[in-house]
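Allow me, if you will, to draw on your knowledge of protein folds for a short while. The matter concerns a single protein, recorded as an amino acid sequence and a row of backbone structure tokens. Kindly check, if you would, that the fold set down in the tokens agrees with what the sequence suggests. You will find the record immediately after this paragraph.
***
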Amino acid sequence: MTAAEAFRALHHHRAPGDPLVLPGPWDAASARVFEEAGFPALATPSAGVAASLGYEDGQVPAVEMFAAVARIVRAVEVPVSADVEGGYGLAPKELVERLLETGAVGCNLEDSEDGVLKDPRAHADWLAEVREAAGDRLFLNARVDTFIRGVSDPDRAIERAALYVAAGADCVYPIGAPPEVLPLLRAGIQGPVNVGASADGGPSPAELGARGATRITFGPGLQRRASRALREIADGLLA
């Protein structure tokens, strides 16, 4: 079984309340901490990696993002999926090649750009090209940005999710979906559903799993919490 196949298998046959929890490393050191804690796989957050490289979210040059992902992959033995935002304008074949060069087993791809939702059918066509180029070598997590772009109707997210699954996405991520609508999303979406959890309270991964989440990620929340802890340590050194 390849690493990508093993990663894909982690998303299936999960019991309600037992979602796959994927912490988001922002550098090699944090990746090793999460691996040593016992997590079976990791998923990088683009905003957390951006902060570690000294950039604002969305401003990291593609070459630096891929290099950062490669360093994280090299540091651990568990599978790593990479958040590569909207694909950096790369053609599907090149995007897949660059991802495979890092050693990543999957990727997260967004369906909005500069704060505006993309045409869902055009995006689905693009995802289908990514899937064709990748074959079964990459796990595709298709982010659905309706909730964070002001579209609160769950049906709109479900419609996009259906197009992306039909295009070959392994999982969909309705980012920003309120916990109370997760049962509706779960009922309307075929396949695994990624749900974002807070690193500072809110429903636990088990609670989100019971509502319909297949897997849990944290975005940049863990990196930001670690930065706050480091600031407290730094302040103490000056006391």
Q: What stands out?
A: The chain has a mean pLDDT of 97. The first strand starts at residue 20 and ends at 21. The first helix runs from residue 3 to 9. The chain is about 45% helix and 15% strand.
